[in-house]
Every structure is written in structure tokens, then in C-alpha cells.
Amino acid sequence: MAGNNEDIQKMYKHQHMLGRGGEECVVRGANIKCDQGTDTCILQLPQDHGVYTADSRPLIDSQDKDRINISGFGKCRVTGKLCDPSLTPWTVKLENYIIDDTEIGRLGYAVEVGDTATCYNGGSVSIITSGQTSPSFGETNLGEVIEIVEDVEGSWSNKEKGQDFLGHISVSNYGLYNFGIDCKDSEVNGSSGSLFLYAKDGKKLKYMGAYEIKRRNFTKKAKIAGKIKSFNTWVEFILSPDHDYYIELDCPGVNGISYCLVGNQDMEVVNTYSYEKDKSGYSAGVWFFNDTMKKKEPYLYAYERFKRQKAGKKGIPTVIMYLSPEYDNAFNLFIGNRIANKKNIWGDVSNALSALSLGLGINEKIIADLSAIIGKLAGPSSLALSVISLFLATLPKLFLERLRFELDKNQYSFIKITLFDVNPGTEEIVGGYNIDDFKIEKISDYENKVMDIYGEKYWIGEFGMISKIKPNPNSNKSIDEQIRDNIEKIFNKIEKYLDDKVNSNGKK
User: Fold this and answer.
1) Disulfide-capable partner of 371 in 59, 328, 382, 448 (CB 3.0 to 4.6 Å)?
2) Domain boundary at 263, 280, 315, which?
């Protein structure tokens, strides 16, 4: 047994740690399954027990069976509901290694491949892979590690190299990255194995996490060398510049892959032909920043926001709107109403609403109420427009006045509007949003074509797509007039909602 490795070479020279029965000991990152679940799961270990393999992989003990270790196995065939794992301790067949965790005052036995746990709902949980990879690097040094370069496709074959996959990554931008994988000789239907991420810390390797490699039920797209690349098997993780990362794959039965590392970027397609010429598709789209990353890494987010300010940049984009002429003007009408009638409610309320993300906004009752009103005008587009109107209601009046002044210069145009979260002041501030800058671009090549639109690269968000306006043969009113007729009703509903929110927060 050993603690943290003193030299990176130990990672390459390790052998499987076996129990006396010949089975591999199970470590953090093992892939497990339940015979009554629809998905596999990665076995996590947030707190080490102080016992490791030779290359510093922490051993799992028989008590590691709680929700912090096992997130779930998809849908349960017994209950018919989403899995909520409730397991007995692991049944250890051979009590080879006793793990004495003095930190929490607990004794347990090391779990080996072949051991099982039982769910109180009736499932049997077993181990697919131990989490110990099988590298055959021998005396390989760092120079022979595969260099993974962002936006450059690569391939690897175990048959050619005679070793398992180990790659080095160094990036220039902070953010979310996707490592797309295409298994050449093995169809990935369920799980294909695990990916382990490490960061180099001096002469040591720091374990960052284990990720399951599995086919998703939707396709991820990325723009590489001017072309759109699609893949539906990938792993995503957050990386920072000025760090050396290493990824290791444990994919039994997979001897070759093609791969690519790309900065995450949400993509959608708009069709800007008029409704009369082409009824299909969406004519506008709005990308909302999802604050999952900010909540997970608040200090890194604050540092990135502050760094951009020091570099003379506007800030971090939180909303990006691609608007066709009819929605350009509708957006202007929304802002005009806010300027005329708005109460100053900017502050913690806007943060509590979390209206920057469609995924979060959908959970608010106000979104359903607004969609019912706007739906009469925009049909399927009502969700996106509801979130926009709610978001506008949280912005300060002075900011809206500046924004509308610039919008007036581009009426009835195809435009792109970006709103930025700016660091407030000259010191790095953690927490909160400060939407205090924007950029408006008139897009001349946006008209009469089908084209891709993009969210901010390296960040996670979601697009709300806005349908084309269908002419109403029973009304002589334009879309502007229809929105104007309903806009007061929309914002009265928002005003009441925000007042209730403030009052309820004040009572807590």
C-alpha cells in the first residue's frame, strides 16, 4: 500500500492490486450496475479512507454504499420510478484487507470484483469494472504520452501502440470541455468504461474525478476546422489554463478510438426565410447562461469575470439573442414598457429567480402563467419569450434605457444582442450577477437563409427557440400591435409575482 505517488512514473508502472482470491480490489471510479436498473453508475468516494493502491487509487470498503457513493441506476424496474438507491453494505466474500478509517472511526473490508450489495427495493448491485485500469506502459516516460490538442481530431489503437490510452491536456481557456469518443471496434450501447481525470500538482498527480463513458440519447455538435462534427459518446469536465491534465481510459474490449477535445458550445439552427416562403423552422433564438458552473466553481467564475475586466473585455455573456426583425421590435416594446412602468427591484431578487436559465425558469409557476398569455401570440415560442420578459423585469432601469437607445438605431433588422455579467468594482467579487454591459450587432447575412447560431463557448447554457410569426387572417393587427395589446397584462403579472417574492423573502 502507498499514499500519494512521489513520482509520475508510478502511474505507469502500477500493477492491478488483487485480493488473495485473485479478484481485483475495487477503487474509486469503479463502474457498477443493478439488475433492476436501466443505467450503470460510477462508484464515488468523496472522502478517502487512507488506503490506496500503488498508484494512489483509494480503495472502496464494504460500507461505501450510500447516496454520496452511488447516485442511482436510472429507472427502477421494481418501483417504476427513478432509482433512489438504498443498499445493504457490500457482501465481501473474502475478507482480505481490513480498512481502518480513523478519521470517521469505522472498520470495513476492501471490496473486490465479484462482491455484491442488495437494494432494499429488490435489486442486486454488482461490479462491472474495478476502477483500476490496466496500463502496459512499462518504462514509458512523459514524452510518449498522447498529446491531446483542442479542436484537433486524433485516433488511438491499442493494437498499434501496445498500451492503454493515456493523454495529456493543456488548455488556454477556462471552462467546460467535451471529450468526444468514437469507438472504432466496439459499439457503445450502454457503458463502454470509465475515464479518469488527473491534474499534475508538482511531482504528484491529483485525482480530479471519474466519468462514465456511455452513449447519450442526443447528439452533441461542435465546430472543428470550419466543419460541424457530431458525436453522441462523450465526457465533459471543467478545465483551467496553466494546468497539466492527464486522462486515462478504462474501456474493456475497446482496442481503438477516434477522439476530439472541444470547448463546450451550444448550437441551434434558425431559418430566416419569411413564413410565406418557408413555414418550417425557427426565426430567432435566445441563449441563456446556466449558472450550474457558477454555483459549482464560484471562485473560478469570479476570477474569470475579474480577469476579463482587467483585460478590457466586457464580461461573461449571460444572454445571447439572435432576433429576426419582428422579434427585434417586440423586444424593443418589452423594454419600453419596463422603462415606463418599472419599479426598481434590482438586487437579490434577480439572483433568487435564477431566470437566466430556461431549465430553471420552467420550474417557476410564473413562466406557465406568462406562457398562457404570450402563447396566444407566439404559440410554441411562448416559453422563450416568457423567460425574456421575466429576465427584463429584473434589470435596472438605467441599463434598459442605454440598451433601448442603441436598439432604436437598428429597428426592424436582423440583430444579435449579447448581455454581459460584469465584475462590480475594481476588486474581485464572488457571487451575484451584475448585468451592466451589452453588445448589439447588426447581421447582414442573417436574412433569407438557414444558419447555425451559437451560445458562448466554454460555458453551459440552453437555447430557447422562437417560432416564425404566422399571419392571422382574422386580425388586421400586426405582431407589434398584438404584443402592445398584451404587454401590460404580461408585466402586471410579473410585477405581482416579484412583489410576492420580495414579501415572502422579507418574512423569512
Assistant:
1) 382
2) 263
